[in-house]
Amino acid sequence: MGNQARSTGVAVTGTAPGALPLLGHALTLLRDPLRFIGSLAEHGDLVHVRFGPLRAVVVCDPELAHQVITNERVFDKEGPLWRRAREVEGDGLITTARAGHRRRRRMVQPAFHRAKMPHYATIMSDVLADETTAWQDGEIVPVSAFALRLTSETTARVMFTDSADPEAVAGIRAALPDLVGGVFRRMLSPAPVNLLPTPANRAFVRARKRLQDSVERLIAGYRTAGERDDMMAVLLAAEHDENGTTDDEEMSALVTGLFLAGTETTSSSVSWTMHMLAEHPDVQERLRREAESVLGDRVPAYEDLIHLPYTRAVVTEVLRLYPPAWLLARVTTSRTTLGGHVLAAGMNVIYSPYLVQRRPQQYPDPERFDPGRWLNAASGCPGSFLTFGEGARKCAGDTFALTQLMVVATGLVRRWELRPVPGPRKRPRARAVLHPRRLRLRLDRRGAA
């Protein structure tokens, strides 16, 4: 159907079946989010859905998704998804609407300059060594817990050098499960329901308070630690350059957003990378051989990564199949057309990287894990790879995330063989971020007798 839309210039529209009175498609989405979203392309390029009183159109065609993402003047970050996200993060870089984005982007961009990446890569390798030093041959590792420790410690050291309060970092880590699950649930619930004193709502409020207190504690500790050469110093310098003052609320929102992105979304990708390497020993072995031929016995420097094309292809294929932010939304700021169809002002427009990155029109045999498709591959049509977004709102930390995934992948497979643990096939748990359910892997030390 996507081909028809491109050949005629008019998108095919449809309505998702199975809407219930009052609830619409909300119950179906909550029960099996990925199956529901994945089924929508069968009904058109633009598919109408309803979640309770909220009406939306889901964009299933990648070129139309590209138009939505790159035209933030018309398709802005408003609506229930972003309101719920602001309950956690505040008005930060990722969650802010168009009016506040440019200023926040200017503040954050220097922290992700390529000149900073060699230093960050060293920290990533150091943290990986610290977090794996106690591993034993034959050990069974709970992957999600390991990945969360790894990414939270890496993010803390990158942002705060050695002044990061370990209790504050642990507080952020402990708050994440209730926050990430709660944002998705609250997005689909009527506002009055989110105010009820239910166990889930109380857990969300406690987790949000713990997160906010932990971030404030990190910032306060940093400001008493003297001069530093880290990401936080860059942010404070950028804030001073912008208006000569330091806005505590704005800085807290920026730090919270960066910490959550560096911790929660990257831990998802680390988990999926380890899972796919364990499930595909041929891929794991090829990645190991590439790493050893380029690196020998040393840890990877940032400058080495360009010489690891297969490793990059592996992590890119993981990100295609399992984009952390799998469901996103915008709201039209004025009456507009998309794919030849009129959308009223205030329309909720949803797009899913998980959906568009599994379309057979763009990716033959899309369910197959095939890193080779990224070697010497053309870039594809606009909108066909949305894990990091596109346009002015493209992820500022995309190079940082790719660097960490490559450092982790090469560091692990040179010392350990990752093996799956027998059990049911691992399915994603789709909340605000896509995580594997209860993933455990066996570690066999390479070269062990």
From TrEMBL:
<keyword id="KW-0349">Heme</keyword>
<protein>
    <submittedName>
        <fullName>Pentalenene oxygenase</fullName>
    </submittedName>
</protein>
<dbReference type="InterPro" id="IPR017972">
    <property type="entry name" value="Cyt_P450_CS"/>
</dbReference>
<feature type="binding site" description="axial binding residue">
    <location>
        <position position="395"/>
    </location>
    <ligand>
        <name>heme</name>
    </ligand>
</feature>
<dbReference type="GO" id="GO:0016705">
    <property type="term" value="F:oxidoreductase activity, acting on paired donors, with incorporation or reduction of molecular oxygen"/>
</dbReference>
<keyword id="KW-0560">Oxidoreductase</keyword>
<dbReference type="InterPro" id="IPR050196">
    <property type="entry name" value="Cytochrome_P450_Monoox"/>
</dbReference>
<dbReference type="Pfam" id="PF00067">
    <property type="entry name" value="p450"/>
</dbReference>
<dbReference type="InterPro" id="IPR002401">
    <property type="entry name" value="Cyt_P450_E_grp-I"/>
</dbReference>
<dbReference type="InterPro" id="IPR001128">
    <property type="entry name" value="Cyt_P450"/>
</dbReference>
<keyword id="KW-0503">Monooxygenase</keyword>
<keyword id="KW-0408">Iron</keyword>
<dbReference type="GO" id="GO:0004497">
    <property type="term" value="F:monooxygenase activity"/>
</dbReference>
<comment type="similarity">
    <text>Belongs to the cytochrome P450 family.</text>
</comment>
<dbReference type="GO" id="GO:0020037">
    <property type="term" value="F:heme binding"/>
</dbReference>
<dbReference type="GO" id="GO:0005506">
    <property type="term" value="F:iron ion binding"/>
</dbReference>
<dbReference type="InterPro" id="IPR036396">
    <property type="entry name" value="Cyt_P450_sf"/>
</dbReference>
<keyword id="KW-0479">Metal-binding</keyword>
